[in-house]
Amino acid sequence: MKPQDTFAADQSAVMPTYGRADLWFERGQGSYLYDYDGLAYLDCASGIAVNNLGHNHPHLVAALHAQIDKVWHVSNLYRIEGQEKLAARLAKATALEHVFFCNSGAEANEGAVKMARRYHHAKGDTNRHVILCAGGAFHGRTLGMLAATDRPAFREGFGPMASGFIHAPFGNLNELRNQMSDKIAAIFIEPVQGEGGANAAPDGYLEGIRAAADEFGALVIADEIQTGMGRTGHLFAYQKAGIQPDLIAVAKGLGGGFPMGAIIARKEIGEAMGPGSHGTTFGGNPLAVAAGNAVMDVLEDEAFFPELGQRISQLDAGLAELASLYEGKIAELRGTGFLRGIKLSEGYEAGVLNGMLRDHKLLAVPAADNVLRLLPPLTISSDEVDELLRILHNAMKAL
Ligand SMILES: *Cc1c(COP(=O)(O)O)cnc(C)c1O
Predict the structure, then answer these.
(1) How far is the CA of 269 from the centre of ligand 1 (A)?
(2) Which of 170, 222, 327, 364 is 20 to 30 A off residue 55, Cα-Cα?
(3) Which helix (H) or strand (E) holds 299?
(4) Cβ neighbours, 10 Å, residue 312
(5) Which protein residue has the closest C-alpha to ligand 1 atom 11?
(6) How far is the CA of 196 from the centre of ligand 1 (A)?
């Protein structure tokens, strides 16, 4: 019996916080999800930038199987081999020193903000608590992160908002510098805004943020929850700009589908977080770090990023062609790497296009600002990129 025959949509006990599509997937393999009738969907949603290595990746499956037979959970009261290993790898890859493991993106961001404040507090700079965020930012749905997130609809009915968060328009260094003061603890930034509409930082923006933070004694927190773990063609998106953040929040792709997050911090920040200063029951449990280490094994393969670079170029070329063919319907191409957006012209709706793509067996994700977001698995093949482009052509023609 198929689940749709058992669970009527209008009687679901699942809280209706999502406008869910009436699609049910039974299994996944590589770049495809299969519904209960065995129909294949090319998955360029990747569980919203989570399944970066596609579905049922043999190395991840083997790593989880091996850990399942040993131990699932022990708590952070004890040292955990996989944590030590993954922390060392993330620290090395980012030229930072300390890693805290948690369970989700919002939790990673919350922790990063706490750490930024605690760092200044520990230095005796106790008035420095304001977090300067960007217009259009998305940092998560917890009470704290709602105040950092700049989406009024997400806040409706949930007030009062946490204080100590202000915003400057994304991409505008002058406006950002105008808001700098000795109260700013950190500048909090997504190198590419994902939910906000696949907005890549303009050239020089991240460098300017680093310079402003240094000048005013503030930290830089990079929210790499969506952009990290290879999504933009670099392990982390900030690396393209050549800047060094003080804190990095990671989640989504980190566990390849296993829920986990991490905060990577500079040594002095980690040292301001003594025993008892922060905690989590589940964070970094043996299953999670087994998944995280397996993801890192794949990303650290020498051939991984060169290969990904070729697929990204292929997609770039295909999207450029699409944009010129349908210039009346496509207002702009957005984003970078495998975090791409197609902004539709007035009169065309990203939500409608997304539904048409679904009918053509392609999964994508809408974003703010009438943008359709493409988040292909980083392991997508050349033939599958061609298939993605072919489906896009057919849907754009019909739109
Ligand atoms: C998804 C996302 C979050 C929130 O992550 P959750 O795991 O859903 O809490 C925060 N920041 C960015 C940039 C994201 O893309």
Answers:
(1) 22
(2) 222
(3) helix 286-299
(4) 20
(5) 139
(6) 12
